[in-house]
Amino acid sequence: MALKKFAAFGCAALLVAWSSPSFAEPEPASCRNLRFADNGWTDITSVTALASVVFEALGYKPSTTMASVPISFAGLKNKQLDVSLGYWWPLQQLQVQPLLDSKSINMIEPPNLSGAKATLAVPGYAWAAGLKSFDDIARYRKELDGKIYGIESGSSANAKIQKMIDQNLHGLGGFKLVESSEAGMLVTLERAIRNQKWLVFWGWEPHPMNIQFSINYLSGGDATFGPNYGEARVYTLTATDFLERCPNAGKLVTQLRFSTQLENQLMQAVMNKTRPAEAARAYLKQNPQVLDPWLADVKTFDGKDGLAAAKAQLGL
To answer: Transmembrane segments in this chain: where (predicted)?
Structure first.
Protein backbone atom coordinates (compact mmCIF):
# COMPACT_ATOMS: atom_id res chain seq x y z
CA MET A 1 0.00 0.00 0.00
CA ALA A 2 2.80 2.42 0.92
CA LEU A 3 4.56 2.03 -2.42
CA LYS A 4 1.30 2.52 -4.30
CA LYS A 5 0.83 5.77 -2.43
CA PHE A 6 4.38 6.84 -3.32
CA ALA A 7 3.61 6.22 -6.98
CA ALA A 8 0.22 7.87 -6.80
CA PHE A 9 1.67 11.05 -5.38
CA GLY A 10 4.55 11.08 -7.86
CA CYS A 11 7.28 10.48 -5.36
CA ALA A 12 9.81 10.31 -8.17
CA ALA A 13 12.78 11.35 -6.09
CA LEU A 14 12.97 8.00 -4.32
CA LEU A 15 12.60 6.05 -7.56
CA VAL A 16 15.27 8.13 -9.25
CA ALA A 17 17.58 7.57 -6.31
CA TRP A 18 17.29 3.82 -6.81
CA SER A 19 18.55 4.07 -10.39
CA SER A 20 20.88 7.06 -10.28
CA PRO A 21 24.69 7.15 -10.19
CA SER A 22 24.50 8.51 -6.66
CA PHE A 23 23.88 4.91 -5.63
CA ALA A 24 27.64 4.46 -5.76
CA GLU A 25 27.85 6.57 -2.65
CA PRO A 26 27.69 4.71 0.67
CA GLU A 27 24.48 4.94 2.64
CA PRO A 28 24.38 6.74 5.99
CA ALA A 29 26.22 4.87 8.72
CA SER A 30 22.94 4.30 10.55
CA CYS A 31 21.70 2.14 7.67
CA ARG A 32 24.44 -0.41 8.17
CA ASN A 33 22.86 -1.67 11.39
CA LEU A 34 19.67 -2.98 9.81
CA ARG A 35 17.08 -4.03 12.40
CA PHE A 36 14.73 -6.91 11.57
CA ALA A 37 11.70 -8.03 13.57
CA ASP A 38 11.05 -11.75 14.05
CA ASN A 39 7.82 -12.92 15.67
CA GLY A 40 9.22 -16.41 16.29
CA TRP A 41 7.20 -18.25 13.64
CA THR A 42 9.50 -20.63 11.81
CA ASP A 43 8.64 -19.21 8.37
CA ILE A 44 9.47 -15.67 9.45
CA THR A 45 12.60 -16.79 11.30
CA SER A 46 13.76 -18.62 8.17
CA VAL A 47 13.23 -15.84 5.62
CA THR A 48 14.59 -13.23 8.03
CA ALA A 49 17.76 -15.30 8.35
CA LEU A 50 17.92 -15.62 4.56
CA ALA A 51 17.60 -11.86 4.09
CA SER A 52 20.13 -11.22 6.86
CA VAL A 53 22.72 -13.51 5.24
CA VAL A 54 22.35 -11.60 1.97
CA PHE A 55 22.67 -8.25 3.73
CA GLU A 56 25.78 -9.47 5.56
CA ALA A 57 27.31 -10.41 2.20
CA LEU A 58 26.72 -6.81 1.11
CA GLY A 59 28.58 -5.41 4.11
CA TYR A 60 25.60 -4.59 6.32
CA LYS A 61 25.30 -5.61 9.96
CA PRO A 62 21.73 -6.86 10.36
CA SER A 63 20.32 -7.74 13.75
CA THR A 64 17.10 -9.52 14.64
CA THR A 65 14.79 -8.78 17.55
CA MET A 66 12.53 -11.63 18.65
CA ALA A 67 9.18 -10.16 19.64
CA SER A 68 5.52 -11.08 19.63
CA VAL A 69 3.36 -9.91 16.73
CA PRO A 70 1.95 -6.81 18.54
CA ILE A 71 5.34 -5.81 19.91
CA SER A 72 7.07 -6.16 16.56
CA PHE A 73 4.48 -3.94 14.89
CA ALA A 74 4.86 -1.39 17.69
CA GLY A 75 8.63 -1.48 17.16
CA LEU A 76 8.18 -0.53 13.52
CA LYS A 77 5.80 2.26 14.44
CA ASN A 78 8.23 3.66 16.99
CA LYS A 79 11.17 3.25 14.57
CA GLN A 80 12.94 0.96 17.00
CA LEU A 81 12.87 -1.64 14.21
CA ASP A 82 13.31 -1.21 10.45
CA VAL A 83 11.79 -4.23 8.69
CA SER A 84 9.39 -7.11 9.27
CA LEU A 85 8.95 -9.81 6.63
CA GLY A 86 5.96 -11.26 8.45
CA TYR A 87 2.65 -9.46 7.92
CA TRP A 88 0.23 -12.31 7.23
CA TRP A 89 -2.78 -10.86 5.44
CA PRO A 90 -5.69 -11.10 6.16
CA LEU A 91 -4.90 -12.92 9.41
CA GLN A 92 -3.25 -9.89 11.02
CA GLN A 93 -5.21 -7.21 9.21
CA LEU A 94 -7.11 -6.04 12.29
CA GLN A 95 -3.80 -5.31 13.98
CA VAL A 96 -2.00 -3.77 11.02
CA GLN A 97 -4.67 -1.80 9.14
CA PRO A 98 -4.99 0.97 11.76
CA LEU A 99 -1.22 1.45 11.57
CA LEU A 100 -1.37 1.65 7.78
CA ASP A 101 -4.33 4.02 7.82
CA SER A 102 -2.54 6.34 10.22
CA LYS A 103 0.64 6.09 8.12
CA SER A 104 2.52 4.81 11.16
CA ILE A 105 4.18 2.02 9.15
CA ASN A 106 4.70 1.19 5.46
CA MET A 107 3.57 -1.94 3.61
CA ILE A 108 5.48 -3.07 0.52
CA GLU A 109 3.56 -4.13 -2.58
CA PRO A 110 3.53 -6.76 -4.02
CA PRO A 111 3.67 -9.36 -1.20
CA ASN A 112 6.86 -11.29 -0.50
CA LEU A 113 4.83 -14.53 -0.54
CA SER A 114 1.55 -15.44 -2.27
CA GLY A 115 -0.53 -18.61 -2.04
CA ALA A 116 -0.14 -19.16 1.67
CA LYS A 117 -3.03 -20.36 3.82
CA ALA A 118 -3.93 -20.43 7.47
CA THR A 119 -6.94 -21.97 9.20
CA LEU A 120 -7.94 -24.81 11.51
CA ALA A 121 -6.68 -28.29 10.71
CA VAL A 122 -6.88 -31.85 12.02
CA PRO A 123 -4.81 -35.05 11.72
CA GLY A 124 -5.70 -37.08 8.64
CA TYR A 125 -7.34 -39.89 10.59
CA ALA A 126 -9.78 -37.46 12.26
CA TRP A 127 -10.65 -35.97 8.87
CA ALA A 128 -11.22 -39.43 7.37
CA ALA A 129 -13.51 -40.28 10.28
CA GLY A 130 -15.79 -37.32 9.60
CA LEU A 131 -14.23 -34.14 11.06
CA LYS A 132 -14.00 -32.23 7.78
CA SER A 133 -15.50 -28.81 8.42
CA PHE A 134 -15.89 -26.14 11.09
CA ASP A 135 -19.49 -27.27 11.56
CA ASP A 136 -18.26 -30.78 12.44
CA ILE A 137 -16.09 -29.65 15.36
CA ALA A 138 -18.90 -29.43 17.93
CA ARG A 139 -20.12 -32.92 16.98
CA TYR A 140 -16.82 -34.32 18.16
CA ARG A 141 -16.49 -32.28 21.35
CA LYS A 142 -15.82 -35.41 23.43
CA GLU A 143 -13.10 -36.75 21.13
CA LEU A 144 -11.47 -33.31 21.11
CA ASP A 145 -11.73 -32.88 24.88
CA GLY A 146 -13.48 -29.55 24.19
CA LYS A 147 -10.21 -27.88 23.14
CA ILE A 148 -8.88 -25.98 20.15
CA TYR A 149 -5.12 -25.46 20.01
CA GLY A 150 -3.90 -22.04 18.90
CA ILE A 151 -0.52 -20.33 18.86
CA GLU A 152 1.09 -17.60 20.98
CA SER A 153 -0.87 -15.29 23.21
CA GLY A 154 -1.80 -12.01 21.54
CA SER A 155 -1.90 -13.41 18.01
CA SER A 156 -4.70 -12.60 15.59
CA ALA A 157 -5.27 -16.31 15.03
CA ASN A 158 -6.07 -16.83 18.68
CA ALA A 159 -8.31 -13.76 18.72
CA LYS A 160 -10.35 -15.13 15.83
CA ILE A 161 -10.65 -18.55 17.46
CA GLN A 162 -11.70 -17.00 20.76
CA LYS A 163 -14.29 -14.86 18.97
CA MET A 164 -15.85 -17.97 17.45
CA ILE A 165 -16.04 -19.51 20.92
CA ASP A 166 -17.46 -16.38 22.55
CA GLN A 167 -20.11 -16.00 19.85
CA ASN A 168 -20.87 -19.72 19.71
CA LEU A 169 -20.14 -19.78 15.98
CA HIS A 170 -20.31 -23.29 14.55
CA GLY A 171 -21.56 -24.41 17.97
CA LEU A 172 -18.14 -23.80 19.55
CA GLY A 173 -19.47 -22.14 22.69
CA GLY A 174 -17.85 -23.75 25.72
CA PHE A 175 -14.73 -24.90 23.88
CA LYS A 176 -11.41 -23.87 25.41
CA LEU A 177 -8.67 -22.15 23.43
CA VAL A 178 -5.27 -23.57 24.37
CA GLU A 179 -2.58 -20.96 23.71
CA SER A 180 0.96 -22.09 23.00
CA SER A 181 4.09 -21.25 21.07
CA GLU A 182 4.48 -22.64 17.57
CA ALA A 183 6.97 -25.19 18.88
CA GLY A 184 4.65 -26.17 21.72
CA MET A 185 1.70 -26.62 19.37
CA LEU A 186 3.76 -28.82 17.06
CA VAL A 187 4.91 -31.00 19.97
CA THR A 188 1.27 -31.41 20.94
CA LEU A 189 0.38 -32.32 17.34
CA GLU A 190 3.20 -34.86 17.06
CA ARG A 191 2.21 -36.47 20.37
CA ALA A 192 -1.44 -36.59 19.36
CA ILE A 193 -0.66 -38.26 16.04
CA ARG A 194 1.63 -40.76 17.73
CA ASN A 195 -1.21 -41.71 20.07
CA GLN A 196 -3.95 -41.37 17.40
CA LYS A 197 -5.64 -38.72 19.52
CA TRP A 198 -8.05 -36.26 17.93
CA LEU A 199 -6.97 -32.64 17.79
CA VAL A 200 -8.13 -29.39 16.18
CA PHE A 201 -5.25 -26.96 15.82
CA TRP A 202 -4.20 -23.80 14.04
CA GLY A 203 -2.28 -24.82 10.93
CA TRP A 204 -0.70 -22.92 8.05
CA GLU A 205 1.27 -23.30 4.87
CA PRO A 206 4.12 -22.92 4.06
CA HIS A 207 5.34 -25.03 6.94
CA PRO A 208 7.05 -28.43 7.19
CA MET A 209 4.06 -29.74 9.15
CA ASN A 210 2.39 -30.12 5.75
CA ILE A 211 4.94 -32.69 4.62
CA GLN A 212 5.96 -34.15 7.99
CA PHE A 213 2.45 -35.07 9.10
CA SER A 214 -0.73 -36.26 7.44
CA ILE A 215 -3.06 -33.33 8.13
CA ASN A 216 -6.15 -31.83 6.51
CA TYR A 217 -7.52 -28.30 6.64
CA LEU A 218 -11.15 -27.83 7.61
CA SER A 219 -13.62 -26.27 5.20
CA GLY A 220 -16.33 -23.84 6.19
CA GLY A 221 -14.20 -21.24 7.95
CA ASP A 222 -14.49 -18.58 5.24
CA ALA A 223 -16.41 -16.10 7.39
CA THR A 224 -13.69 -16.09 10.02
CA PHE A 225 -10.45 -16.82 8.18
CA GLY A 226 -11.28 -16.09 4.54
CA PRO A 227 -11.95 -18.24 1.46
CA ASN A 228 -9.83 -21.08 0.13
CA TYR A 229 -8.82 -22.31 3.58
CA GLY A 230 -7.74 -18.91 4.75
CA GLU A 231 -5.72 -18.15 1.64
CA ALA A 232 -3.18 -15.58 2.63
CA ARG A 233 -0.44 -13.31 1.41
CA VAL A 234 2.60 -12.27 3.39
CA TYR A 235 3.79 -8.68 3.14
CA THR A 236 6.92 -6.82 4.12
CA LEU A 237 6.47 -3.93 6.55
CA THR A 238 8.95 -1.14 7.21
CA ALA A 239 9.31 1.87 9.44
CA THR A 240 7.96 4.94 7.67
CA ASP A 241 11.37 6.56 7.16
CA PHE A 242 13.28 3.44 6.16
CA LEU A 243 12.96 3.43 2.35
CA GLU A 244 13.94 7.07 2.04
CA ARG A 245 16.63 7.00 4.72
CA CYS A 246 18.25 3.80 3.41
CA PRO A 247 17.40 3.59 -0.32
CA ASN A 248 19.88 0.84 -1.20
CA ALA A 249 18.88 -1.45 1.66
CA GLY A 250 15.28 -0.50 0.95
CA LYS A 251 15.59 -1.57 -2.68
CA LEU A 252 16.69 -5.06 -1.65
CA VAL A 253 13.92 -5.28 0.94
CA THR A 254 11.29 -4.35 -1.66
CA GLN A 255 12.63 -6.94 -4.13
CA LEU A 256 12.57 -9.94 -1.79
CA ARG A 257 10.19 -12.61 -3.09
CA PHE A 258 9.80 -16.08 -1.65
CA SER A 259 7.89 -19.22 -2.63
CA THR A 260 6.20 -21.92 -0.58
CA GLN A 261 8.77 -24.40 -1.87
CA LEU A 262 11.65 -22.17 -0.78
CA GLU A 263 10.15 -21.66 2.66
CA ASN A 264 9.28 -25.31 3.21
CA GLN A 265 12.88 -26.30 2.50
CA LEU A 266 14.33 -23.62 4.75
CA MET A 267 11.87 -24.31 7.54
CA GLN A 268 12.43 -28.03 7.50
CA ALA A 269 16.16 -27.50 7.93
CA VAL A 270 15.58 -25.06 10.79
CA MET A 271 13.15 -27.40 12.53
CA ASN A 272 15.72 -30.17 12.19
CA LYS A 273 17.98 -28.07 14.42
CA THR A 274 20.07 -26.41 11.72
CA ARG A 275 20.82 -22.84 12.69
CA PRO A 276 18.72 -20.47 10.55
CA ALA A 277 21.76 -18.67 9.11
CA GLU A 278 23.41 -21.98 8.19
CA ALA A 279 20.20 -23.19 6.57
CA ALA A 280 20.03 -19.94 4.60
CA ARG A 281 23.61 -20.24 3.34
CA ALA A 282 23.05 -23.86 2.35
CA TYR A 283 19.93 -22.89 0.43
CA LEU A 284 21.74 -20.10 -1.41
CA LYS A 285 24.56 -22.45 -2.41
CA GLN A 286 21.99 -24.80 -3.94
CA ASN A 287 19.86 -22.02 -5.43
CA PRO A 288 22.14 -19.04 -6.24
CA GLN A 289 19.75 -17.91 -9.00
CA VAL A 290 17.37 -16.43 -6.43
CA LEU A 291 19.88 -13.63 -5.86
CA ASP A 292 19.60 -12.27 -9.40
CA PRO A 293 16.19 -10.56 -9.04
CA TRP A 294 16.73 -9.72 -5.37
CA LEU A 295 19.97 -7.87 -6.03
CA ALA A 296 19.11 -6.20 -9.34
CA ASP A 297 20.59 -2.67 -9.14
CA VAL A 298 21.46 -3.18 -5.47
CA LYS A 299 24.90 -2.11 -4.23
CA THR A 300 27.06 -3.15 -1.33
CA PHE A 301 26.98 -0.92 1.71
CA ASP A 302 30.04 0.91 0.40
CA GLY A 303 28.61 1.37 -3.12
CA LYS A 304 30.03 -1.54 -5.15
CA ASP A 305 28.15 -3.98 -7.37
CA GLY A 306 25.97 -5.96 -5.03
CA LEU A 307 25.30 -9.17 -6.95
CA ALA A 308 28.97 -9.84 -7.76
CA ALA A 309 30.06 -9.00 -4.20
CA ALA A 310 27.39 -11.14 -2.57
CA LYS A 311 28.14 -14.18 -4.72
CA ALA A 312 31.84 -13.82 -4.02
CA GLN A 313 31.28 -13.42 -0.30
CA LEU A 314 28.95 -16.43 -0.17
CA GLY A 315 31.22 -18.59 -2.30
CA LEU A 316 28.68 -18.99 -5.10
So the answer is: none
